[in-house]
Design a protein that fits this description.
Blueprint lengths: L2 E2 L1 E2 L26 E3 L10 E7 L2 E10 L9 E6 L6 E2 L5 E6 L6 E7 L17 E7 L10 E6 L4 E4 L2 E2 L13 E7 L7 E13 L16 H4 L6 H6 L4 H42 L5
Parallel strand pairs: 1-15
Antiparallel strand pairs: 2-7, 3-6, 4-5, 5-15, 6-14, 8-11, 8-15, 9-10, 9-14, 10-12, 12-13
């Protein structure tokens, strides 16, 4: 993936830049900046690949997720390389994923702000806190011009070895150490081949028009993106609606209660004199 952020190490940015920076326009994918992190470290058989080129903004994260070898578990991942790298995204509000049409499988975008040395006992990387966000893209949601997914920082979930952690410090956005995209089994929920076409990933401000080309756009967007309506907008909306609702409600009440009551009273008024006259004529008269 090309993740556009402001790199503290500008000569090795992995195609990682910040939005609204003029010098970022020419940056693109660097294949050597990405490597696999599959379940083979746990003797699994899943495989992932990342097909990209410095001359093309389109890339593809794909592979095969195997869950049989590890008894229902399994993962395939592509991540940035190098432990000495760091990115500062503190001046931005969210991560923007720009994807093409994909399968309905669930993917996970992961950020780390801390890396440890390899374990001298087994040569494996030691675990640290990950900040994760799960997403999926169906054919109905996909847009031919790109499907944008905006992920505010608050929507990243802190986990440790796959389990959510509540009592952890906030993501240090000044010193991001790693980005990765992962395909997981989610406890035997999915397996097999997967393709995720992807375009440059960016650290961006919140969009001016979040409802355009956003995955799962809905009435909850204002809450999702942390935006509030201005008093001018919120005060105008209900004024024209209140009188219309009043008129409609009044008509409904009249037709269902008022009109039948009036008809009944009218009938009583018409019938009462006739009954009184008949009674009068039937009574005996006295001289």
């Amino acid at each position: 993936m090309a993740i556009y952020t402001e790199s503290l190490n500008q000569d090795r940015n992995a195609g990682i830049n910040c939005e609204n920076t003029a010098s970022n326009a020419s940056r693109s994918w660097i294949p050597s900046d990405w490597t696999a992190g599959d379940d083979c470290v746990r003797r699994g058989k899943s495989q992932s690949h990342f097909d990209c080129s410095p001359s093309d903004s389109n890339a593809c994260f794909y592979g095969q997720l195997d869950i049989q070898t590890l008894g229902g578990a399994g993962f395939a991942s592509q991540r940035t390389t190098g432990d000495d790298r760091s990115w500062d995204v503190s001046g931005y509000d969210s991560i923007q994923l720009d994807t093409g049409e994909a399968d309905k499988k669930r993917y996970t975008f992961i950020i780390k702000d801390k890396l440890l040395q390899m374990n001298p006992g087994n040569g494996r990387e030691q675990s640290t806190i990950s900040y994760e966000y799960d997403f999926s893209i169906s054919s109905k949601m996909a847009n031919s011009n790109g499907t944008f997914i905006f992920i505010p920082w608050k929507d990243f979930k802190a986990t440790y070895r796959g389990k959510e952690e509540k009592e952890v410090s906030a993501l240090d956005r000044k010193k991001i150490k790693r980005f990765s995209t992962t395909m997981r089994s989610f406890f035997s929920d999915q397996e097999g081949p997967f393709p995720l076409p992807i375009r440059p990933i960016k650290a961006v401000p919140l969009p001016n028009d979040p409802e355009k080309n956003v995955l799962g756009a809905s009435v909850d967007l204002l809450k999702l993106f942390g935006q509030e309506q201005s008093p001018r907008t919120s005060s105008r909306q209900p004024r024209w609606l209140v009188p219309i609702l009043g008129i409609v409600t009044g008509c409904w009440l009249f037709c269902n209660t008022g009109y039948p009551w009036l008809m009944k009273q009218s009938c009583h008024l018409r019938c009462r004199p006739r009954l009184d006259l008949l009674t009068l004529f039937q009574l005996p008269t006295t001289l």
